[in-house]
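Need a sequence for this fold. Nothing fancy.
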C-alpha cells in the first residue's frame, strides 16, 4: 500500500500559521527534500519551531551556488553575493591565484568563487569547529579548511602569497544583537554575529594583521555596512593599503576593498 502523497497546501498552512511569510515556496522546497527521502514531519516541525529554512533543508543558495549547511552554522546572506562578484572581477588573471575565505562559516564565499575559477589555491578558516566541518563538506577537493582565530589559523607558507582575502566576519555591534530576527538569535551562534562594541572589532584585527599575508597588489575584501564602512576603512593603515568602498544598491551590500601597496 502506498502512503498518500503529502498535501502541499496542508504543509503550507502549518508553516503560515507559524508565521512563515513565504509558506507556499517553503512547502514546495520541503516537499522536494521529502521526495528525496527525508521525513517531512521532522522538517516541518523544525521549521515551525523557528529554525531557519536553510538549516532545515540542509542547504542555502549564494549567487546561484548551492551551499551545504548544518544546524548551528551561519546562513549565507544574499547580500554577500557582492563579495563574490567583486572577487570574481579580481581573480583569474594570475596563474593559480591564492584565495583565502576568512571567517568562512559554511565556506559559501570560497565555494562560490571556486565554482567560477577552476584553478585556484583556496584556503578557508573559521574559529568554530561546526562551521569548519560544514566548510569541509562544501570545499572537499576544492580547498583546505583550517580551524583557528582569524589569520592565525592559516598555514605560514601563505605569507606574502595571498592574492585575495575574503572576509565576512561578524559585524553586528554587541548591543544591537537583540534587534536581529529571532531565527538568527536562536539558531546562529553569537560568535557568528557579534562584532564587538562598534561591530568592527574583527575587521580591525584582520586589517591590522593582513599586511604580511597579502602580496603587493593583492586585495582584501571585507563585507561591512554602509554605516560602519568608515570604521572598517580606518582599520587599514594608509601607508600599506589603498582603500575604497564599493556599494551594490540592489543587494544592499557594502564592501571595503583594500589593495596592498
Ligand atoms: C557572519 S559569519 C560569515 C560566514 C560566511 N563567511 C558567510 O558569509 O556565510 C562569520 C563567521 O566568522 C566566524 N568567526 C567569528 N570569530 C572568529 C575568529 N576570531 N576567527 C575566525 N572565525 C571567526 C564565525 O564562526 C562565523 O562562522
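Here you go.
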Amino acid at each position: 500500500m502506498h502512503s498518500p502523497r503529502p498535501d502541499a497546501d496542508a504543509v503550507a498552512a502549518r508553516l503560515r500559521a507559524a508565521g512563515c511569510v513565504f509558506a507556499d515556496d517553503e512547502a514546495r522546497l520541503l516537499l522536494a527534500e521529502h521526495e528525496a527521502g527525508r521525513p517531512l514531519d521532522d522538517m516541518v516541525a523544525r521549521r515551525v519551531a523557528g529554525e531557519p529554512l536553510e538549516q532545515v533543508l540542509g542547504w542555502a543558495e549564494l549567487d546561484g551556488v548551492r551551499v551545504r549547511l548544518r544546524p548551528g552554522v551561519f546562513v549565507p546572506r544574499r547580500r554577500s553575493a557582492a563579495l563574490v562578484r567583486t572577487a570574481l572581477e579580481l581573480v583569474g588573471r594570475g596563474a593559480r591565484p591564492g584565495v583565502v575565505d576568512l571567517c568562512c562559516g559554511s565556506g559559501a564565499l570560497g565555494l562560490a568563487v571556486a565554482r567560477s575559477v577552476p584553478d585556484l589555491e583556496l584556503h578557508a578558516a573559521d574559529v568554530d569547529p561546526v562551521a569548519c566541518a560544514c566548510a569541509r563538506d562544501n570545499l572537499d577537493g576544492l580547498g583546505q579548511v583550517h580551524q583557528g582565530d582569524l589569520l592565525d589559523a592559516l598555514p605560514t607558507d601563505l605569507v606574502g602569497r595571498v592574492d585575495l582575502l575574503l572576509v565576512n566576519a561578524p559585524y553586528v555591534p554587541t548591543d544591537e544583537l537583540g534587534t536581529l530576527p529571532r531565527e538568527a538569535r536562536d539558531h546562529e551562534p553569537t560568535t557568528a554575529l557579534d562584532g564587538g562594541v562598534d561591530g568592527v572589532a574583527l575587521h580591525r584585527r584582520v586589517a591590522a594583521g593582513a599586511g604580511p599575508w597579502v602580496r603587493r597588489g593583492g586585495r582584501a575584501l571585507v563585507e561591512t555596512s554602509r554605516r560602519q564602512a568608515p570604521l572598517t576603512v580606518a582599520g587599514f593603515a594608509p601607508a600599506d593599503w589603498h582603500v575604497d568602498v564599493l556599494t551594490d544598491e540592489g543587494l544592499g551590500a557594502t564592501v571595503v576593498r583594500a589593495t596592498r601597496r
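For context: The domain at 78-260 is CATH 3.40.50.150 (Rossmann fold).
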